[in-house]
Design a protein that fits this description.
The chain has 186 residues and is an alpha/beta fold. The protein has one domain (2-179): Flavodoxin domain (Rossmann fold), CATH 3.40.50.360. The protein has six helices and eight strands, in the order βαβαββαβαβαββα. Strands 1, 2, 3, 4, 5, 6, 7 and 8 form an eight-stranded mixed sheet that branches. The two termini are 26 Å apart. The model has no long low-confidence stretch (mean pLDDT 95). The structure holds flavin mononucleotide. Flavin mononucleotide (FMN) is lined by residues 10-16, 58-62, 95-98, 103-105, 147. Flavin mononucleotide (FMN) binds at residues 10-16, 58-62, 95-98, 103-105, 147.
Length: 186
């Protein structure tokens, strides 16, 4: 049995929709218990009980949402001090609506979140380019969805992004189950 915690923030529902797709992928892996929470409600206990953590954020001014950053600096900061997340599996996703694949700044946003997970000593899961949906809905760092159309009209997250998100969730769940109980040397 392994536990996957999916953490997100969302003002208009786009990142929430991606989070739900990630959750459906993780739930498809037998023996996985999935929790889906907004960043503000996640405790240190939720984190330490998890075998894998997947964090999703809207892109705000080319970087992560302030509530996600607060969670990183408070809850994750304490866990970082005590090396409590070392060896657990981590992954990320994002949504944006500016121009470019997942929105302007999606790549930087995904990378800076992965950097936070690396600080915690977590094992990072990328999104392989042969993942279904990757061609329009992903970067190597994780799934990203663009919630606007060609002329910036808000037309929601596309199916390709949701498909990539679903596969990402399943990959993380499988890897977390495989690595559970193993540890880095310290
Ligand atoms: C304050 C603010 C800043 C934003 N900055 C960016 C940005 O830099 N790049 C981008 O692609 N989208 C940007 N967006 C658009 C959102 O990232 C996008 O609409 C996203 O899908 C919203 O996710 P949500 O529905 O989960 O809140 C911004 C939105 C807001 C409200």
């Amino acid at each position: 049995m392994s536990r996957i915690l999916i953490i997100y923030e969302s003002d208009y529902g786009n990142t929430k929709k991606m989070a739900e797709a990630v959750a459906s992928g993780a739930e498809s892996v037998p023996g996985t218990i999935v929790s889906l929470k907004q960043a503000g409600e996640v405790t240190a206990d939720d984190m330490t009980k998890s075998d894998g953590v997947i964090i999703g954020t809207p892109v705000h001014m080319g970087s992560m949402d302030h509530r996600i950053k607060t969670f990183i600096d408070t809850v994750c900061g304490g866990l970082w001090m005590e090396n409590k997340m070392v060896g657990k599996v981590g992954a990320v996703f994002a949504t944006g609506s500016g121009y470019g694949g997942g929105g302007g700044g999606a790549e930087l946003t995904l990378l800076s979140l992965l950097n936070n997970l690396a600080e915690l000593g977590m094992v990072l899961v990328p999104l392989p380019k042969n993942t279904k949906g990757y061609e329009y809905g992903g970067l190597q760092w994780g799934p990203c969805g663009r919630s606007a159309g060609l002329h910036m009209e808000q037309d929601g997250i596309k199916d390709e992004s949701l498909t990539a998100a679903c596969h990402h969730g399943a990959n993380v769940a499988r890897i977390a189950a495989t690595l559970k109980g193993t540890a880095f040397f310290a």
